[in-house]
Amino acid sequence: MKIQLDRESRIPLYIQIINQIKAMIFSGALPPEYLLPPERKLAEELEVNRSTILNAYRELKAEGLVHSRIGKGTMVVPYESKTQVSIRPPEHRLTWQYLLSDEACRFNDIRIIEMLRVNGDQPIISFATGMADPALYPVDEFYPDITYDIVKKKRALGHTLVEGCVELRKTIMKMQKEKGIDSLLEELLILSGSQQGLNLVARCLLNAGDTVIVQEPTYIGALQIFSNAGVKIISVPVEEKGMRLDIMETLIKKHKPKLIYVIPTFQNPTGTTMDLKSRIKLLNIAYSNQVPIIEDDAYGELRYEGNTFPSLKALDQYDHVLYLNTFSKTLFPGIRIGWMCGPKEIIHQLTVKKQLEDLHTSTFSQVFLTEFLKSGRFQVHIDESCRYYREKRDTMLKKLENSRIKGLRWVRPSGGLYIWCGLPLNISADTLLLKSKEKGVIFVPGSAFFLNNKGNEYIRLNFTYPTVKEIEKGMMILLNVIEEENKKNQEKIINKDSAICNPIY
Amino acid sequence: MKYANRMNQMTASEIREILKVTEQKQVISFAGGLPDPELFPVNEFLTAANYVLKESGSQGLQYSTTEGFEPLRMQIANRMNSKFQSQITKDDVLIVNGAQQALDMSGKLFLDKGDLIVCESPTYLGAINAFRTYECRFISVLTEDEGMSLSHLEETLKAHPDIRMIYVIPDFQNPTGRRWSLERRKRFMDLISCYDIPVIEDNPYGEIVFDNQIFPSLKKWDKNNQVISLGTFSKIFCPGLRVGWISASQEILNRYILLKQSSDLHTSNLSQRQISKYLELFDIEAHIRKLILAYRNKRDIAVSAIKKCFPADIKYTMPEGGLFLWIELPESRSSRELLEVCIKENVAFVPGEAFYPNGEKKNAFRLNFSNADAEKLKEGISKIGGIIGRYHSAAIYETI
Hints:
The complex is a heterodimer.
Chain A: H1 13-27, H2 39-46, H3 50-62, E1 66-69, E2 73-76, H4 102-106, H5 111-117, E3 125-126, H6 148-153, H7 166-178, E4 188-191, H8 194-205, E5 211-216, H9 220-228, E6 232-237, H10 245-255, E7 259-262, H11 276-289, E8 293-296, H12 312-315, E9 321-326, E10 338-341, H13 344-358, H14 363-374, H15 377-403, E11 409-410, E12 418-422, H16 429-438, E13 441-442, E14 444-445, E15 458-462, H17 468-492
Parallel strand pairs in A: 3-13, 5-6, 5-7, 7-8, 8-9
Antiparallel strand pairs in A: 1-2, 4-10, 9-10, 11-12, 12-15, 14-15
Chain B: H1 14-24, E1 28-29, H2 42-61, H3 70-84, E2 93-96, H4 98-110, E3 116-121, H5 125-132, E4 137-144, E5 147-148, H6 150-159, E6 163-168, H7 182-192, E7 199-202, E8 227-232, E9 244-247, H8 250-264, H9 269-281, H10 284-309, E10 315-316, E11 324-328, H11 335-344, E12 347-348, E13 350-351, E14 364-368, H12 374-399
Parallel strand pairs in B: 1-12, 3-4, 3-6, 6-7, 7-8
Antiparallel strand pairs in B: 2-9, 4-5, 8-9, 10-11, 11-14, 13-14
Helix pairs in contact in B: 2-9, 4-5, 4-8, 10-12
């Protein structure tokens, strides 16, 4: 039994003692029949008058919490007699699943959670996640810059604005200007990762029953958020130049969508990029139908060859585009910083919502990032990353090219993180994953990027996270598994004309 | 663009507008709930931050699992068990971006349009706002110094079988600074264990205790896995890193994890590792003792200033922890009107109305004592006292 007295306090000492003993009894720290120390001993220990302890014990007795036995001393009484109420156990186990809201019930997709569980410690080669190469994080050269003075001066441990640190927003404004996006401070919102941006958009703009237009296939996180919001998702197939704009107008007229979500550059998962003509065409469709566009530009900086196209946001002069970007793919994902750029009024609404979601993004992370961006090392880092990733992409492409597996096709991406492959006929991505996982290689089956379990004839391979050696080894394993499956199927198929393969888009 | 219907629930708060003025002028503000920035352990934090980058830089900047950095979850479970007598393991802990995110996710998880939620009266403004976007309705249960009135709670639960959630802050509640007594906690759990309703126990202030008595979490009596406990490092460490947590039974935590993943994948890995490293290298208990000494001292200054400068019929709480005092004017007075006068004299607080979801009471206000320094504390309170005095006699004059 440990009692600490506060002699400065206005609370009388004997009350302090009572309160603390009481607390220990209720918490179970002093179990029933626990023998309290003799009054004289406790008085000496606490350096108080013996009468103080006497008073305290008397009071505890009066409350029925302790009792005295002659010859034994003062002890804690058994639990039942202390109070009339006792625990009445529930008749049934609590049925949590009945308590969930409609929104919570709608959402039950754990694929991303599972993907994130894979990390460098496991002996598995992962082509699954869309991660930057950890070896490239510019850590060493950078970290000495964060000093006591910076933390103090920039209040890096305190709260910051919901919209994000002013200095970070100004730095991003400058970066965007170089890419042709003119923006004001109030048009920027710092996010805890770009996923939060999509979530905020859904919460601010979408009601259950609304319709949105997306590419098919598209980013799994976006599909989750839109399905979760209870909206109808209309898919426009991806093609070489981004998406089938020829059918877009008809779909818009028919479904009256609330917004269009599009990844115009190095699309996830297909790696395709819209050319300038398609970008202008898409904007015109959006203008003439009064539909806003959510442009996700997470991969735009990672270009390994070919021309740079302006973002939709840079082309848009009429406030139709809400632009979403992140540092997760270019710098480091663990810091969870993304941003949005759009018309002031919608950014304001998103800010109000963000405040309720998490108040603001980590101040220290924002200061850390600002210092990095200001150092001018960002562009150097991007250039270096692109060199590295190009080599990795080429390693993977070469393995695919050399494999000569009948019916296996893929999209050659000029940037981004992924190679999208169409499997030979009759091979299912799910089965393939099971087999290749046994041999230590994982990837994402195409169905993750489609609605309604479509897309099982595709797989997405990430080439930025694994090392060149892992790519070589992993591809050898994977291609062997595909080859085996293919052979099995070829034997089954009587019609030898089956060189026809799945369309790649 | 047309906004979603739920956005109509959210109007820019009038109070926020009034208080905006305070940022531009030399105003003594008792409005925020901010810890004192002078007390942030900057050097220790930097040491920890440097360790993280040096030892595990690339890991620390990579994506993490949605649940959070495992060693930190373990540290949190251990701290909760030893401080608040819960019995949880790391698997019962999910890391979130501050407790605010946990509130928002709780709304998302349990509330449909029109659903009922029970809260204390008054209760935390940020929670009201977070839940309100889910278009729910609130029932405020009478709350006394000892905690929520159980007879009123029982009546309420019986009268409304469609209550979907109970939200409470048993330790040094925001805004009143009240702490539920042990008996009330136990009896509360007895009562609600007969109902199939989740209890959100929000506990940002439980460790900032002035009388050395930390009371157990409601989880201690939670035979039924009903309690979802929320915690944060904002008040005991620093708020800018945005790291908080949810602890709940596996079944329910899995649901939260799903929501967390779709909201933002995971909380900043760097922030999580920095805090974990700090906990490993330094004695956070010593830091908390420092905070307690500083805040207790400020509370004492605030209380004695109130005694000295406020008219005798003004009621106020005497919190044994936390960051807030709750002050009640006579029933007929409006604290918002008082604020308008105060702002002209460069002192501000948050009027109490905002803490009642159904706007029941208008005569109280919340005074934060942790952020201002001692001189400002005395000066500000004496100003408010003077204004109340004047406002008071004017009011009496009117009624005559």
